[in-house]
Each structure stands twice: as C-alpha cells, then as structure tokens.
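thread: overnight batch results

M.L. [08:02]
morning all. the overnight job finished for the chain we discussed friday. pasting input first so we're all looking at the same thing
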Amino acid sequence: MTNGRQRRSSIFAGLLLILLGVIFLLDRYDPALGLGHLIRLYWPVLLVIWGIAKLVDQLAARHAGQVRPPMLSGGEAVLLVILAIVLCVFGFRDWAREHFPDVDASMFGQPYSRTQTVNPQTISAGAHVTIEIPGGNIPVHTAPGIDLSVNANETAHAGTESAADEEMDRTQVKVDRTAGGYWIHTVETGRRGMVRVDLDIEVPKDVSLTATTNYGDIQIAGVTGNVEARTDGGDIEIHNTGGNVNATLQRGGARIDNVAGDVDVKGRGNEIEIADVTGNATVQGAFIDTIRLRNVAKITRYISPWSDLTAAQVTGRLEVDSGDIALFDAAGPVKIVAHNKDIDVENVAGALEISNAHGDIKVAYSSQPRGDLNITNDAAEVDLALPARSNFQMSALSRYGSVDSDFEAPALRLANEGQDARLSGAFGTGGPRITIVTSYAAIHVRKSS
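M.L. [08:03]
and the structure it wrote out:
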C-alpha cells in the first residue's frame, strides 16, 4: 500500500539506456576495440549501476516523502533482457572473429587482398624500431645488411572488389623517422579498423624493437637488442634475442626462448612457454592454461591471483596449471605461496619455503638437502621424501591429524598429544632444519627410493 503517497520513478531504466547508447557508440567509433572481451571482464558494472540506482531512489523517495520504486519494474526487466542480448551478441561476435575469421568475413562481404611494399630504408646501427598497427600479424626477422624492409598485405571485406580497393586506398603503411628511431604504422583516412594489415618486416640484427597490434600474432627472431611485444588478441613468439624481452597479452599465449637478458610476461591469456633464459624470468597475470618455464639462470617469478612463486636458478622446469604447481631442480632458494593447489617439488638445493591451503604438498630430495625446509599447509597432506642417509633436525606437527616416519633414531621422537601428532628431534649429525605444520591431514616422512 502507498497510503495515498505518490510512487517515485526509478532512474535505473535511464541508466540502462545510457549504457546501451555508450556500447553502440564505442562499437561505431572503434570496431576493433574488442567490446566482447571488455564485456566478459566488466559485466559486474551492471550490478554496480543497479545498486547505485536503487540507493539513489531510496534516498530521493525518503527526502520527497514518496514511496520508493520496486526493486525491479517490468520495464526495467525488459531493458535488462535487451541489454543481456546485446552483450551476448557482442561477445559472440568478437569470439567468432577471433576463432573463425573466415566466417566473420563472410558476414561483412568477400575478403579482398593486395600487397603494399614500402621502400627499404637504411637505418643506423642499434636503432629502435617501433611497429604499431590496429590489427594484423607482425612477423619480424633479421637479414644481413643495414636495411629496414616492410611488406604489407592488406585485406578488406566488401561486396565488390572496387569497394574493397576504396577501403584499402584509405589505409597506408608508412615508415617515419622519429627522435628515438623509426616508426612503422598505418595512416587511415577511412573508418578505423576496417582494413586488416598483416606485415612482413626485415630488420638488421642489432636493432631493438617494440611491436603492438590490437589483434593478431607477433613473431620476432634473431634480434640482438631489447624486444617489447603487445597484442590484445593473438599469440606472441620471440626467439634468439640478445636483450631483454617484455610481452603483454590479453588473449592468446606466448613462446619465448633463447634470451640473453630478462623475460617479463604479463596480462592474461592461455599457454605460456619460456626456456633458456640467461637472466630473470617473470610471469604475472591470470593465465588459465599451462605455464612452463625451463632453464632460467637467475630468478624465476610467477605471480597470479592464486599463487606467488620465487625460485632461483631453475636448472630443470616449472609447470603451473589450474590445479597444480610442479618444480623440478632448482639450484637456489625457493618460496611458494598458494591456495587450492597440489604442489610437487623435487631437488631444491637451497632453502625451501611453502605455504598452501587445501592442496597436497609433495617434496622429494635425491641427495642430502642443504637448505632449511619450512612447510605450512591447511587441511591437506604433506609428503616428504629424503635419502636414507640424510642428516636433519625435524619439527613436524599435524593438528587433528597424524604423523608417520620411516626414520628412526634415539633423538627423533614420534608422539601423539591429544588430537595432535608430532615428530621432533634430530636424525644423523646436524643438517638443515625441517619444519612442517598442517591440520586435519597426515604428514608422511619417508625414505626416498
């Protein structure tokens, strides 16, 4: 009942119409923006808008002595359904463009292509080359000499070849001299993003590179300077470089190997493979597929919303996926902080520290451990395997769980204390300190085979 008071209208419907208008305007302004990807990331903004609208409605109705509007009116429900359909269409369209480009092309006419060649330029030794295109592949390879060579394959979709030519005439590939080096880019006088430009670039070996594309793959090989690559919708491959490598992704994966400097990969995407790095290697972001790092001479760092790992001198390999972390052979100290991960570590020569929850931990040594070991777990098992002739000082506690050990010595005591189980003392002469704490699960200390 309203008791004769007027019911206030909600501002939520107006905000939804504004949001719809902004979405269509952005798509018209920049077709290559990737609205579908942005929608998948930021759809909770709808809940924020709804909450703000209802809070404003409540306060305004109270101030004016009116009845507050319902939580969701019939008209608002219809607008929400329309908005959901629009968001799904944009998301499906961008997904189809990424995975089925031929199908997407058929929706907008037939594809027509032609090649554009930019006159080669002689560039100075050690120059920095910047490559920026709105969309397309960027393969870069080295060639003897000091010339910069650029070939471009342009593709436009249209009902007729002449219409496609008109679109491509409005897109030119240029090489400009800048204060910092050379800039390879497109100049578009038509609608942005209507022409795809795939480049084929040759550079001298001693350059440094920056390559950016909104969608498309980037491949760079044989460059002795620093390399920076960014794609919002594609894969990155970088091989045989003499400097540092920085790669940024939003979708897709990366393969990077034989790098004389540091490697830094960040963003989000799929599978990451990094191998044979003389410096440090860092992977930071929300990557949903398997991450593999192998033979990193200095520090390996993996940072994600779910895990934080630091390892020195990974002479073997590190593999991380949605449910597991596996590290084999590291010559320096290792620290792992994770949640809901099964962790498997073998042969860490330095100190090892692991903090986990709701995931089993397995640690194994094939030779006498040289560094201290500290494991903290919660509601999951810990399995530690040591050589039979090891020397160590042990403190293992399982709250509301159990502890068992293959090692027996007068100075090593296994005891049950109420609902807790504890293994403490020393085995052999001296050795590293081993501390293990878990709860509601077992601790196994066994001899490695």
